[in-house]
Every structure is written in C-alpha cells, then in structure tokens.
Amino acid sequence: MNRRLADLPVEKLGSGVPKKFLNDGGVSTAFDVFKLGESRLRELRGIDQWASKLMALVEHERDRVQADDLRPPRDPRDWWESDADLVRALRRLASIGAILGMPELATVREIVSLLRWLKGATRWWRWLFGTMSHKLHTRSRYEEAQRLAHSADVSEQVGRAERVLESARPQFAARMDRAEVEQDWRGNSAELLSLLERLVAENGSPDEQALIRHGRALAHHPSALVEQIERMKLDVRFIRRTLRIYQEFGAKFALVVGRSILGDEMGLGKTIEALAAIAHAVAVEEQRHHIVICPAALVDNWMSEIDATLHDAPGLRGVAFREPGRQNAFEQWRVRGGILVSSYRVLNHLLDGDVPSVGFLVVDEGHFVKNPKTQQSGRTARLSRCAKRALLMSGTPMENHAGDLVQITRVVDEARGDDLDHRFDGGRAAMARSGEFRRVLGEFYLRRNQIEVLDELPTIVGTDHPVKVGGKELDEYEARWNEGKLDQARWGLTIGAGPDSMKLRLLSEIVNECRQEGHKLLVFSQFIEVVIAVQKLIGDECSELRGAVSKEQREDNIELFQAAEGFAALSIQIVTGALGLNLQAASVVVLMEPQYKPSTEWQAVKRAHRMGQAKVVVVHRLVARHPADERIVERTRFKAEQFAELAARSDLADASLDALDNSVNEAQLLAELQAIEQDLQQEGASPQA
Known about the structure:
The strands form 2 sheets. This protein has a 7-stranded parallel sheet with strand order 3-4-2-5-6-1-7, with helices on both faces. A 6-stranded parallel sheet has the order 8-13-12-9-11-10, with helices on both faces. The chain is of the alpha/beta class. The two termini are 58 Å apart. β10 (542-545), α27 and β11 (568-573) form a beta-alpha-beta unit. α13 crosses α14 (270-285) and α30 (627-646) crosses α31 (666-682).
C-alpha cells in the first residue's frame, strides 16, 4: 500500500488539493502526506484547513485494497527492501513446507518413534523386572526395527528425506543477500506467489480474501454448484506444489461435477488441476487406476508433470503406454495402479486390453476429438464410459463452431452431449438462445482467462511486421508453386534467398537486440527447413526442437536454454513445441509465418506467457507482403476475434456463429491463391508482384 501511495501524486487525491503549498512544504505524494500526519501537515503554509481532509483521503486510499498491494512487484528493480524481506520469508516457509509435506517424513517419524520406544523398553530396570509378555513384545518390536533398517524401500525414503533436508539447509544457514533473493524470484516466482496467495486467502482481511479469491468461477455457474465446490475440502497430502486458489477450485470442480470440461486459457496450469483432482481421488476414495490421453508429443511432458506435482505413492506413479514395452507397462498399471499416459494414436491397443475400473479419465488437448467421424474420437468416448469421472481439457475448446463444444461434451458425457445437440440444434441455435446456452454450459464447463486469475502476469506486446520479400524468395515460391507444393512455396517466401532472405534479415535484427538486452528468444515455424535455417543463423546459442530431435536431446536443449545466463534461443517447429512446454524463461517470441489457426499461434506464445513469467512478453509475427501470407492473416484475424468472443468468456450473445464458416485451411488457401494468380495474369501483372 505504501508503494502505491508513493506513486500517487497529491493532486490525484481529490479536486482542489493545494498542490503548490504542499510541494513547497516538500510533499509531493500521498505517502508524504501519510508520513507527516495531520499535526505536522497543519504546520505547512496554507494547509491548516486541508489537513484533516487530506488525511481522510489518504486513509480512504489505504483502505482500498488492490491486488498489487498483496504481492511484490514482478520486476525486482521496483522492490523496496520490505519486498525482498517478504520473498526471503516466503522461501523459508516454502522450504519448511517441502519438508513437512514429504510422505517420507511419516516413515522417518515411524522409525524414530519405534527407536524411542525400544530405548525405553530396554532400560535395565524395565528389562530386569519386566514380564515375559513385555519381553516378547519388545523382541517383536526389535525385529520390526531390524526389518525397517534393512529395507531397501525404507532406505530409499530416508535418502530422499535427507536430500530434501540438505537442499533446504542453505535457506536457514545464512540470510540470502539481495542478488540471491532476486534470482530466486525470477526463477521461482510462481511457486512463491502460490504460497503467498494461500497465506492471504487463509489469514487476510475479508477484503483481501475476497480479492485473492477472484476468478474461481464465472457468474453463469449455478450458485448451488459453486457452494458445493466451496464446501468441499481438497485433500492435498500427495501434492508437492502449493495450488493457486483458482487451481484448487478447478480441481474441486472436476471432482464435484464428475464429467466436465476444463477450458482454462493456456498457461494457467490445467495439468496441475487435473493431477490435484486425481491425487484427491487416490487419497480419499482409494481409486488406484487413472488414464491420461494426450497427443504423442505430450506424453513425456505428462510424465514429467506427474513426477514434479505428485508424491510417489500407490495410484500416483506415471506409466507411459508406448513402445518399447507397451504391454508390460499396461500389465504393471493394471496390477499396481497408477496414472497411465497414452497418446491418441495407440488407444486401439489400450482398448484391446483388460481395462479395469478407471477413477479419472483425463483427455488433454480435447479439441483433438471434436470430429465425431474419427476413430480417436470414438475410442476416447468408449474409454470414457469405463471411467467414474472424465475431465476433458482444452484451452481452445471452440476453434470453429459451437458444435465443436457439443461434440467434445458428447465424448466425456454422452447423455449431456445428446441433450445439448437436441436442445441447441447441434450448436446452431446457441446464438439465438445464448443466455440459456451459457447456463447449461455452466453446469459442466469451467473457463478462466489469464487476466481474470493471474493479474500479476505481465502483458503481451504483439507486432505484425510486413516484410517485402526479395526476388529470390519470390522465384523460389514460384518454382514450388508450379510444382503444386504450397507448403514448400510458403517456406520459400521465408528462406528462399538463404541468409539474405528478408525475413531472416529481420530476424537477425531481433536476435541482435535480444543479445544486447540479455533476453531469451523463441522462434517458431511450421516448416522444418525454416527451423534448421534459423538455428544456423543464430549459431551455437540456439538449439532446435523438432520431430527428429530425440527425447533426451530435446530435454537437454530445454534445460540448457532455461539455465543459460543472458541470451539464448530455441528454434521450434510449431507442431512439436506449441503444446505442453513451459518456457517462461523466454520473453521474446518470433512467429516466422502466420498459421492457419489463431489457436496454433496462441499456443506458441503461451509457452512464454505462463505462470512464473516476470517480464513483458514481446511477440513479433513476420508476414510476407504476398497473398500466401496476407490472406491467412486476414482470415485468422477475423477468426481470432470470434474465438475471443465465443470461447474466452463462454458467451455467445454478441457473436454470429454463421461467420465462423470463414475459417481457412490449406485447401481453401490453395484455391484462393490460384484465383489470385489468374486475376493477376488477366490484368497483365506479374504473379509475383
């Protein structure tokens, strides 16, 4: 609050405030007024009659709690020393929480308790005068201690506990200096903010609690459902992370509703919400079998998130269903339980097995099943019927039409999907009855945007760069076009002149600026050829993420990028890296060409604009001054506006669904470009103009 008062000029306190007299007395901000107090204000020339009113205005401003009052500024350069002290305290509290939250601690406590009992039971006088029953019981407890001491499982648990204690030791051995605190904040602000939010929610004033709990649910959710969710106590004993308030609400929403859709915007942690719901089902309901379905590129991400989010406990171990060893993995999961992670493309093999009763089925990137005619959609629906609960997750649940939402609803809840289809004519009647449609969705569909629940995130600054490509790029485009290869023609516009290509020249300028400022950079392209060219342009400071890169090399490249001091870059094939990766160390994103779907571009941008991001994210989109790029921009800009209106607020009232039929795909683009070529030839102009 004091920082906010220090940033508030006195003239902003109210009309008629005597700014000149105050400034003459060295008072320029509301904080100066607060520090002086009423009695000293009266001593200033021309202020006597204003003193009481000024103090009242300042107290009113102090009482008006704002979100920024409840956390440090995202940029440590704006900190007061009290902010650094707060972060130090949060780090210590986080370390204590990590220790107390270890399941291994229960084993350590059991061993310590047993040893203490044995120590007392074997004192010479108790042993000498003890009964035979006591001695036999003591021997039994001693043999139990021996068994524990030689158990590999116990040894492993104690070893993990020792490592956690050792890693926490520096937090208590000495006071972190300012540079260490700032480095900790930049790398772990999401974790520390989650802890701070939890403290305020549990111990803050009513106004602070109301402010921190914003964004739990939208207004169109039934009040009875919201009350039921709020009354529920989420069991977090198996969860390593501290959940944000909205994440806890999302997990409880999935548990209470049973068959639901989580449409949170990208970057809000839908994966963590799903795993928290599963952890509760394991802890409270003893459900041991759960399944996650996701694109093949995200299997490893899910396995990593399971390890990072959940403690190692029966029913919570990740099992990857893939070759080699797919059948053995299935049998291990079927017998021991856990979270089976499968890609869409091997669902047929999963369904061939003896699938036990499933607690949670989580369908990630659920828009993959929006087409009812595909096998993966039918297989996912079939698997959903084997599950007690089903949670479909997608940050872009309505890419083309409200009918998409009807269909993905049918996948996780056939009866509800059929009801939506019947009542709203497959989605076509949603516009005319938008209020009713929203109310029905509110029973099972939850969506929050970043601006609603993560207002500490910095903004995204996006810029389109029109690029006048050179003759060589146009020649390359024309050659590929004449061969009927549209995709190759498009990458010809980007790299057709090699390093002298105009887009690569512009990229080089962006890279140089990032180097000078020490910013990390993500460069996305649809085309492998462009990904390779970008890496060669940037050099050793840049690694590639594309389909041909092995899992191990991919993880190494990401780890090196995240840990690098100063400038580093990743050149990423957008179909490989636009899903599932957390790359918030980057603050600059370059899209080398426009994509057919705005959701694809947003997925890419959200790799950087996520929880833990401490900088403004700058996005550069490079658009060739050529119909092949410009027509996509025209179409996706229109489509993006429709997505924001329809899906971002789950509100169909102000949008025309019929307009969504104008979405572009490769076949449509090809037809339009052919028409443009013919028009230009008839007019006598060059097709390359």
